[in-house]
């Protein structure tokens, strides 16, 4: 049976991978709308966009964490009120909503992975804005609202940490990278596959509504991620030097421990995402990352000659 899918934020890092993933599904008719085509803070526009679709994947978001600290009301307009408009439109039309959220809704002071039902407690404005969106989905779509929290996302279609490390490898002999924040680096292509699978399971009535943690298994630090990126790219991992967060003061506080548990995937009959290092290995073999790594190796050689 054919189902119409709407992907918002379709021009972003995750949105482009979701579109690519759904393009291979013969039972999916897909519409992708970027920020220039759909302003989710406009309730009438959100209602018109959602009409006629069976599944909405909301990748639209304010993602500037430090910018949110300076303009919390603007961030909340997108991440909170805009999500409420989409959820209301889905409630009115009968569509399922898969909404992308973040580990930043949690306090980050644990030492064990946070389960899906852990108490929230954001430590910055971005987290508060995203929590407002989660609450709107729970309130308006208790039976067909799916909140998928992700973290440390990287991919081929937008700025991200892995790309930055490979670009800097070509220009600097050593890099200082934070080693006291723990998280789960997650490849956007792997998350896109998981979202498509969750949507299909939801349509089939196999996946209960609620919160799912769309992050890689295992965890590391930013320093660990940088070193593994270098190692897998044929670069000297010892060029990465561990430092504390105090070396890079930022307007927004970052959670020290953003590691999430994945128990709810089993309820939907789906396996959680693979380990972070396995995802990274696969990602770095794709053409976009392989080209960056090759350039980094070439330019790194010039740094030492």
TrEMBL record:
Which UniProt keywords are present, listed alphabetically? NADP, Oxidoreductase
Task: Report the EC number(s), separated by commas if there are several.
Answer: 1.1.1.133
Instruction: Report the domain of life of the source organism.
Output: Bacteria
Q: Which InterPro entries match?
A: dTDP_dehydrorham_reduct (IPR005913), NAD(P)-bd_dom_sf (IPR036291), RmlD-like-bd (IPR029903)
Signal sequence extent: none
The pathway this protein participates in, as annotated, is:
Carbohydrate biosynthesis; dTDP-L-rhamnose biosynthesis
Supply the Pfam families for this chain.
Answer: RmlD_sub_bind
Check the record and name the NCBIfam families matching this protein.
Answer: rmlD (TIGR01214)
* Protein family per UniProt: Belongs to the dTDP-4-dehydrorhamnose reductase family.
Question: What is the protein name stated in its UniProt record?
Answer: dTDP-4-dehydrorhamnose reductase
Protein's gene: rfbD
